[in-house]
Amino acid sequence: MKVAALTRVGNDGWEGYGFEISGCLKNPCPVSLTLYTEEGQRPWAYQSLYQNEDTIRVIFPKFSYFQDYILIVDENLISKEKVDEVRTLWADLFEDCRTSDFWYRLYSPKEKEPRPLILFLHGGGECGTDNWKQMVNTVGAARLAERYPDVYVMAPQTPVDLRKQVEEADGPRAYATAQMYGWTKSFLKPVCDEIRR
């Protein structure tokens, strides 16, 4: 049996909304979901379930994909860590790019002629080295690509805490958009150089 989690970036960040399960032998195949919250376990009823010969697609009301869960499929317990694949609408269309100076995600439109580029700069909570947090922790790059599918969207990730970086490098001055705490010139320069390439 293979399980794919279906997710999207919503107004509250990374949201789960369903699962696609292949290789389930029973028809109908029983499916249930239990979320683990600060208040304890919480059963989560599905909204719809579609099943053909070997695949089930089950849709749930949205839930934060940052929380733990147990999916039960035909008496098999599947934790979040045991899911085979996580599919994220729009965010999965971004290419994982890396330079010697920084990592970023890039959405490219289908049109190959020159197109505008939207540069999305994340806030302090999306710093890291996974090149993914800036895509799912906030409504941002994925939603921009969804809304403007005919333009490029670039989402770099700074590896250090932005507040520390601002204090150490530039003092209290902040640059770029209101979404971020304070990207510094030292980090924005290689981003701009990559855009010019």
Average of pLDDT: 85
Please give the order of strands in the largest beta sheet: 5-6-2-1-9
How helix-rich are the residues, as a percent range?
A: 10-25%
- The run of helices and strands is EEEEEEEEEEEEHHEHH
Structural class: alpha+beta
Q: Largest sheet at a glance?
A: 5 strands, mixed
Strands, count: 13
Task: For the record, give the distance between the C-alpha atoms at the N and C termini, rounded to a whole number.
Answer: 45 Å
The proportion of residues in beta strands is 35-45%
Which descriptor suits the 3D outline?
Answer: elongated
The unreliable regions are 171-180
State Rg: 20 Å
Number of helices: 4
Structure report:
The protein has a five-stranded mixed beta sheet with strand order 5-6-2-1-9, with no helix packed on it. A four-stranded antiparallel beta sheet has the order 4-3-7-8, with no helix packed on it. It has a four-stranded mixed beta sheet with strand order 10-11-13-12. The protein starts with a strand and ends with a helix. Mean pLDDT is 85; it is low at 171-180. It has 197 residues and is an alpha+beta fold. Helix content is 16%, strand content 39%. It has helices spanning 133-136, 141-147, 162-170, 185-196; strands at 2-10, 13-22, 31-37, 40-44, 48-51, 55-64, 68-73, 76-79, 85-88, 95-98, 103-107, 117-119, 152-157. It contains four helices and 13 strands.
